[in-house]
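Entry:
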Amino acid sequence: MIRERLQQSIGAAVERTLGVALPAGRVHLERTKDERFGDWACNVALQLAKEQRRNPRELAQQLVSAMSFDGGLVDRAEVAGPGFINFTLAQGWYYKEIEQLLSAGVVYGRHQLHRGQRAQVEFVSCNPTGPLNVGHGRQAAIGDACARLLEALGYQVTREYYFNDAGLQMKVLANSVLLRYRQLLGGVAAFPEDHYQGDYIRDVAAKCRAERGDGLGQADLEYFKQAAVAAIFQDIKATLHRMGVAFDVYFNESSLYKDGEVQATLAGLRTKGKVYEADGAVWFKATDYGAEKDRVLVRSTGEPTYRLPDIAYHRNKFARGFDFILDIFGSDHQAQYPDVVAALKALGYDASKLEVRIHQFVTLTSGGQQVKMSTRKANFITLDELLDEVGVDAARYFFLMRRMEAHLDFDLELAKKQSDENPVFYVQYAHARICSILEHAQEKGVLRQKADLSLLKEPEEVHLIKHLIDYPELVLGAAQAREPHRIPTYLQDLAGVFHNFYHKHRVVTEDQGLTNARLDLCQAARTVIANGLKLLGVSAPERM
């Protein structure tokens, strides 16, 4: 890739000139804002001048003189300003890159850095206590996009949903259904505020009554629980399927108890001397790992807190031999996951293989005002309601447009617009327009031949080429940083560059050679847009 090759050449020049082996991370390169000053700029001379006690411009000139580039990559390297080095890439090299893009097709932008390695991504993992809400929708889009980006690095990825079917919340769920069941029988059962309020609980209770009659009572709590979990999780799976998110594994929390993994985890922490008993409870020495206070793992009632099965679950992940583990959580987990990481370290696991990313909440807006949809399913806005409003493509795209650590204002009216104002429509329309251009050329009987890409010399053509061949590096950076928002940002810019090219230049012309070159350029743009949308789980329509 361009950045890597430039960094290698700069690093080699520094070593030849100064005898200093410079790590690639210290060679900072960035795109120039004005192409009159080249394509890439580097400040390495400014960085080194002070420690070398040298004039930065003189050092920059000396480095330029010591540089060599293979494969015709660079046309010229020049010193600018107080000591920047600006690189202008050779146009012939750009054309070769477009040829490689066309040859690679659907795999363009994919890498093999982690080929043969296995990654696991856990996301959504919503308790089966109600329908998915819009916050879960954002997490589903982020988690699936991160999984796709890891696959683009060569990982074999397992998408996993941790199914919380044990613990106190399940007891509350079961009791919620029991109380609604009693109300259906004409009882005056009071309904506590801390129980699940949505009408979906009444639906489950009605189904229980239809299946088992009027004789159920307190002794049937397990039946109520299983009935609720089955109904709610079927709804969750259907919503995820609708959104295009498929999990490889649904891991049941209850299996950790059945298989003795919760008990084994606690025993392991005892052996390491990292737990103690106080006030009838079992505590983890979290303060040994920087926490402000120790954490309860087992309550005085004998019931585990959520932390203990969570630690056991991650212990299970490590036992399965994943090379990399990624957890995507909502901001309500911000204070919880450090305890799990600390416990894994206490148990002797390499916690550097685990990465936890936290996303912020979503607010639905329309006309600048917060929107509150009414729903019969729950006392919150469900993901299904949002999908009904804007569709799957817009939902996924909008969920991914902002950095996950930032709060997301989801503009419903904008997401529904069928115009260039709508970001996803704008990108998809660029793809559809290219399909139309290619179809028009075929209808016109254009004879497709091997194109002479050197005919693409207009500023708008060269500008488009430069954007297209940035794609592999863009994917690499987004994947390594786990920042899927970089993809829609790039696609938005690329669509704008393509539309600008299209408005200024006819593709099908009287010049057969130029026509073929521009058709190849259009095909290259179509390929990159489609590949980028696929990373987001968004469709690339051929007609709109």
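Residues 512-536 form the longest helix (25 residues).
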